[in-house]
Design brief:
It is a single chain. This protein has about 375 residues and is an alpha+beta fold. It folds into two domains: about 1-200, no CATH class; about 200-375, Alpha Horseshoe (Serine Threonine Protein Phosphatase 5, Tetratricopeptide repeat), CATH 1.25.40.10. It has helices at about 10-20, 200-215, 220-235, 240-250, 260-270, 275-285, 295-305, 310-325, 330-340, 345-355, 360-375; strands spanning about 1-5, 40-45, 50-55, 60, 65, 80, 95-105, 110, 115, 120-125, 130-135, 155-160, 160-180, 180-200. It has a six-stranded antiparallel β-sheet with strand order 2-3-7-10-11-12. A four-stranded antiparallel β-sheet has the order 9-8-14-13, with no helix packed on it. Strands 1-6 form a two-stranded parallel ribbon. Strand 2 and strand 3 (about 50-55) form a beta hairpin.
Length: about 375
């Protein structure tokens, strides 16, 4: 449906000025926003992709005029609008106020299941009571919709509006945030309109990003090689290259050959690539490394527990006990190790010993909760 601004009553025309007309001349960014429409921006990491929306935010009550109930279909007309400027005959709403609402993605994403390449876009909307159409345009530098040109469109997607709690200011908010997907919602007055954003192959994209960064300054630190390897091992991807990364991280060039964590990660990478004999030797070197601390060895064991390798973890905790007898992290490790293999009695004994040596109240609280579970025979402790 197409409407013309000339068809509205004077009050509606005046209201539309807030959203569709600039104040002359165009304002530098260091001046206050035009028409009290505050500038705003929101960013969210979705996988390795950064999504940013920059916009001007109109409000419902303006200069004493309460426009509640007069926003959708009135102040913001449904359908396309004929604007009385620049000969724009069929123009969508700018999805905000003042200049273009700008939608930027650092890499390709899918919006409502449709591909949107990396780039910066002007965001427009064709509103309706039952369905909205969002438009992503190559033109992201104009004022409002006056220079909207359908030839510059990159993508159109549809979305369903829904009732929401009252929002005085138009706001874009990421209402769902997951490792490889998110939902951003336009919220204003009593309405929200969500857009689903997903990133395909997020682990592979993270790997590509790490591979690139390790070629630079980050590659001079063993910790970064170790972390990149660890990500691959956790996600069970890129395992041959992960082994190469682990070897670099645990090598002498960056000091990883004297670090328990670097060697332990190398051992895990070797095992993941079927090199069990080499892995066993590296594990032995890691947990018997001169200069290693009880805490460092404990952390290695905790990592194995997290991977579900409870028997191997218990062996690490037991080695730690031989090297550093009667220390707090050693008893904590043995508690977790015995619990992992289902031995609640011995886990409880170690938990009580650890409680006596706990260095602070937060650790005491965690231990008390674990002990309470173990006393009931429950070996599933945090």
């Amino acid at each position: 449906m197409k409407q013309t601004i000339r068809a509205f009553a004077p009050a509606a025309v005046a209201a539309l000025v807030t959203l569709f007309s600039p104040s002359a001349p165009a304002q530098p960014s260091y001046l206050p926003a035009s028409g009290a429409n505050q500038r705003a921006s929101v960013s969210q990491q979705v996988g390795p992709v950064t999504v940013t929306i920059s916009y001007s935010s109109p409000r419902v009550v303006l200069k004493g005029d309460d426009r509640h109930g007069k926003i959708w279909g009135k102040l913001v007309p449904y359908g396309l609008t004929e604007l009385d400027f620049n000969d724009c005959k069929s123009c969508p709403w700018r999805a905000g106020a003042n200049e273009n609402t700008v939608f930027t993605v650092s890499d390709e994403v899918k919006v409502q299941g449709k591909s949107l390449p990396a780039g910066t876009y002007g965001l427009f909307a064709i509103t309706g009571p039952e369905e909205w159409t969002f438009i992503f345009s190559k033109n992201a530098t104009s004022w409002g919709s006056y220079w909207y040109d359908p030839k510059e469109e990159v993508l159109r997607v549809t979305a369903k509006p829904a009732k929401d709690e009252y929002h005085e200011w138009l706001t874009y908010d990421f209402v769902v945030r997951e490792p490889a997907k998110a939902t951003v919602a336009l919220k204003w007055e009593d309405l929200e309109v969500p857009l689903a954003i997903t990133v395909d192959d997020a682990p592979a994209r993270w790997v590509a990003k790490m591979r690139d960064e390790l070629r630079g300054y980050a590659g001079f630190y063993w910790e970064n090689w170790q972390r990149a390897t660890d990500y691959c091992l956790q996600n069970k991807i890129n395992l041959p290259e992960a082994l190469e990364w682990a070897q670099r991280g645990a090598g002498p060039n960056f000091g990883g050959d004297s670090q328990v964590q670097a060697l332990a990660t190398l051992a895990r990478a070797q095992a993941a690539n079927g090199k069990e004999a080499e892995s066993a030797k590296t594990w032995d070197k890691a947990i018997n490394l001169p200069g290693a601390t009880a805490v460092q060895i404990h952390q290695v064991g905790r990592g194995l527990v997290a991977e579900g390798k409870v028997q191997q973890a218990l062996s690490v905790f037991q080695t730690n006990a031989k090297r550093f007898p009667n220390q707090w992290p050693v008893h904590v490790g043995l508690m977790r190790g015995y619990a992992g293999v289902g031995d609640a009695k011995r886990a409880l004994e170690e938990g009580r010993l650890a409680l006596k040596q706990a260095p602070d109240e937060p650790n005491k609280k965690v231990l008390l909760e674990a002990i309470a579970r173990l006393e009931k025979g429950d070996t599933k402790i945090n």
